[in-house]
Here is the input.
Amino acid sequence: MDGLVGRTDIIGAIFGQTEGLLGPDMNLNELQKISKIGRIDVTTKTTAHATTGEVLIPMSTDIDTCSLVAAALESIDKVGAFDSKFKMLSIDDIRAAKKDDIVKRAKEIKRKFAIKAVSDGDTMRRDVHEGTTANSRVSSYGPSKLPCGSGMLDSPWIILVEGRADIVNLIRAGYDNTLAIDGARVDESIKVACRSKKKIVAFLDGDRTGGALMRELRMMVRVDVELRADDGVEVEELTPQRVAEILDPAVAEIKEEFAGHVPQRREGGRNGRRGRDRDRGRGRDRDRDRERDVERRDVPPPAPREEDKPLIALVTPMYQGLKETLEAVALDADGGEAFRAPVSELVTRLKAQGGGVQCIVMDGIITSRLIDAAKGTGVETIVGNRTAHVDDDQGLRLRSFSELGVF
Here is the structure.
């Protein structure tokens, strides 16, 4: 334009000077009414005596209509009182670009699915070979009956994990010298077990609760190697292959040390930090721990709450069928089964369900991730083996089988 004009002047000229040129059905305002043309965007740049800019018109028409509209705009010779000139720069087919994006994303999806399918196949074969006897190899330790692997008592070193489901998963990966902390606090039996072993490996979940439990564990016992699952993932959710990837380097060092070749101490790294030796005053602690163990044996478990009696009646018949299966059952408001899924897939299934679930009964640990997924879906109660460190229960009723007296 040969003078200073504004955006509204340009849009007015576009509508005004093209009206009637292509017939009533192809007026720009009519095309906008039927969503064939979108919002016209104008950007301008002014100098001392002229205005330049660009006009962007989104259209969903055939190429013939698009070409006619472009030619009509090029016929505009005035904006306001000033001479002007419009010239088409390009016609871009955004559908072609979108098709390229779709094809690219489809290739990524196919590649990820293929990798997962191979991993699932390997996991299934390993489960058939090793995992069918995993549940039968879970034992118990100490007065508190903490879950442990059958090789825990005979091994000179042990792996501390968070719960029974982690024990079963590590047995599937070939590790049976395991002991579960099985609670939000470190049980006295854990101290007794750690004092009798030459090496202690802590392998905890990769979430916030796993970090909090690791800090508490450091203060209570000697930890030689600290390992964590991947960020946001629980140990029970790891494939046997991933368990081996995390544990094998530390295990190789321990075995080499027991063979008489002490490797150089590793520094740093989330999956290889060495714990400090906190075994001072061992003789005094041993006597005190024995006294506490005697006291624990004499203390009966707390009586179930009165308001939990209907829940106990619902859960008790289900317990034996769920025990050591690593599965969860979702119940509707009438107590009927909404769905059944592995604990590792529970969050995904719950989100996909969207609603209609009032209670979840699971052979696993109640985590913050599960509570977040249950929020807003109508879930009121979750029952599991235990509850991890939880900052906010979101108003849900969280119970363990031991709290309900269900065994």
